[in-house]
Amino acid sequence: MRFLLHLGLMIGVALTVGFGLSWYALSDGRLIGAIEIGPWQTWRDVGVPRPDPYTRAYMARTGGLELGASEGLQFVARTDSDNQRLDRACRYRIDGTTPAARFWTLVAVAPLTGAPIARPDGALDFASTRLSRAGDGSFALYVSRTLAPQNWLEITGEGSFELVLTLYDTPSVGGGVAALPAIIREACA
Length: 189
Prior knowledge:
CATH topology of the largest domain: Jelly Rolls
Strand content: 25-35%
Largest sheet: 6 strands, antiparallel
Structural class: alpha+beta
Low-confidence stretches: none
Radius of gyration: 20 Å
Strand order of the largest sheet: 1-2-3-9-5-6
Number of helices: 2
Distance between the termini: 59 Å
Number of strands: 10
């Protein structure tokens, strides 16, 4: 009887640890195949001819149609630069510059569906061709439900959200991205 109890306990621990590590590898992945630069995260082997098994599993789980390795790179931010979850009740300033790219977009999306959460009759995203910049090439972008100055993306709804930054035709594809814009929480309603 004692043997069966120990056997059951070992099987339970093995299943818990195995499924827990698998879930972590496919959802967060920082220790496995993802690269983190400040609040931004990307999977380095997405779009290559032979990605590692974790990247393949992540892509199968998310069901996303990803860019090829020579086409660009996509970064996702779920938290601000202070590691607090992005919340639609707050106003955020995306401050800095992007790596060299022919074109880039920044979209605010719902966490599970990936659907844009911008106001339906307004702009759905920021694009590198549609914003005002400082003389040194830097920018300040605002994402909030309330009015903000200059480059503003109005979002709707309640709860958390994600920011997706996509760099198209960039020399940073090899993973050599040094810095990405900071995400600064300014105020919350």
